[in-house]
Specification:
By secondary structure, the protein is α/β, with parallel strands linked by helices. It has helices spanning 2-6, 9-18, 78-85, 120-125, 131-149, 151-160, 169-176, 180-185, 188-208, 226-230, 241-264, 276-284, 308-312, 334-347, and strands at residues 32-36, 108-110, 162-166, 213-217, 269-273. A 5-stranded parallel β-sheet has the order 2-1-3-4-5, with helices on both faces. Strand 1 (32-36), helix 3 (78-85) and strand 2 form a beta-alpha-beta unit. Helix 3 crosses helix 14 (334-347) and helix 5 crosses helix 6. The radius of gyration is 19 Å and the shape is globular.
Length: 354
């Protein structure tokens, strides 16, 4: 708990005040390549047969042009900001969007799919893209990039690119705590280890195809998501601390995995991007960041709405999303995404500029 109190406030207040003055650096990173779930999906779910979509109002109402894009937010998601901070385009295009071609993917490409997880069962819950399929798309992308730029230039980009990976929350909230069969197969520690084994295999696989600069994200305090607070039977509207403790334990193991990967794979540089303490601070002391509400979301009643339920309740969504930590019952507002991105870039991801 002391980490929550001492790691961030002054720094975060400063970057909040600076806002759009946040520095952008050009020329060092040629591309960002994204794998993961709805925390980083920029629109791939628009193009698959799933009920988990956000390509309708009020999603995207604060995005450029006020248009829904398939991002689970009122605006941009963290990887968009990371791309901008590396001096690349402000938006990372989703790989499955047919309006983009290989020329658009030279400086960034996004394979993420909302609702997915490390475990294949997680992706099957809402019929979204499993992580292994994201990797298959990546391999296909490599061939297209090599054909477009030539092997030498394409391989140079693949090696120098920053790979941003954000995934894992759904494995617990959509899978372990929802499906009785998973709970019968694993204890929590066993399931954590199962997921980390998949994460390790995933890194080994993309390493074989050129990945050298990777960020593996930890879990947020998932017990403080508005939906989890709504259904917390032991203390309604309070954070589910059991879920938060599971996230903390998983993050500790993920950090150990990052250290292990850096020792085992020659030439690789893996960093651990941990959102936990900053999000926890936002939830517990929202006024430090200029928020007014952290216990519920902007969309609808803010208690349980997500995806199409936000569409149903759209006209009743809050007028100013910047006053809220969460946009829907599961996902942050653009402001939260920006503050998280600024923090993680200045503390961790800047290292890839060296």
């Amino acid at each position: 708990m002391t980490k929550i109190c001492h790691h961030f406030p002054f720094f975060i207040i400063i970057i909040f005040i600076l806002g759009k003055l946040f520095p952008v650096v050009n020329g060092k990173v040629p591309a960002v390549i994204v794998f993961g779930d709805s925390s980083v999906d920029t629109g791939n779910n628009n193009w698959i047969d799933t009920s988990l979509k956000s390509n309708f109002e009020p999603y995207g109402r604060d995005f450029e042009g006020g248009r829904p894009t398939g991002r689970f937010s009122n605006g941009r998601v963290p990887v968009d900001f990371f791309s901008e901070y590396y001096g690349l385009p402000k938006y990372v295009p989703p790989y499955l969007d047919p309006s983009y071609g290989i020329q658009d993917f030279v400086t960034g490409v996004n394979f993420a799919s909302a609702g997915t997880g490390y475990d294949n069962t997680t992706a099957s819950v809402l019929n979204v893209i499993p992580l292994w399929k994201e990797v298959e798309f990546y391999k296909e992308y490599i061939k297209r990039l090599q054909s477009y730029l030539g092997e030498e230039r394409a391989n140079e980009i693949l090696t120098e690119a920053v790979y941003l990976v954000s995934i894992g929350t759904n494995d617990f909230l959509e899978n372990y705590y929802l499906l009785p069969t998973t709970k019968l197969c694993y204890t929590v520690p066993e399931f954590q280890d199962h997921l980390l084994g998949i994460a390790k295999d995933f890194v080994y696989e993309i390493y074989r195809y050129g990945a050298r600069k990777l960020s593996l994200a930890g879990l947020p305090p998932m017990g403080c998501l508005p939906l989890e607070r709504t259904i917390n039977l032991f203390a309604i509207h309070e954070c589910n601390e059991e879920y938060n403790n599971v996230a903390l334990e998983f993050n500790g193991k993920m950090k150990n995995l990052v250290n292990q990967l850096n020792k085992e794979l020659p030439g690789i540089h893996v960093v651990f991007s941990n959102p936990y303490y900053l999000v926890r601070q936002m939830v517990k002391k929202p006024s430090l960041f200029g928020y007014e509400v952290s216990s519920k979301a902007c969309c609808g009643t803010g208690l349980f709405e997500m995806s199409y339920l936000c569409n149903i309740d759209g006209p009743w969504s809050c007028p100013d999303a910047d006053k809220y930590v969460f946009w829907d019952s599961f996902h942050p507002t653009e402001k939260t995404n920006r503050i998280l991105a600024q923090h993680l870039f200045k503390t961790v991801l800047y290292k890839f500029m060296k």
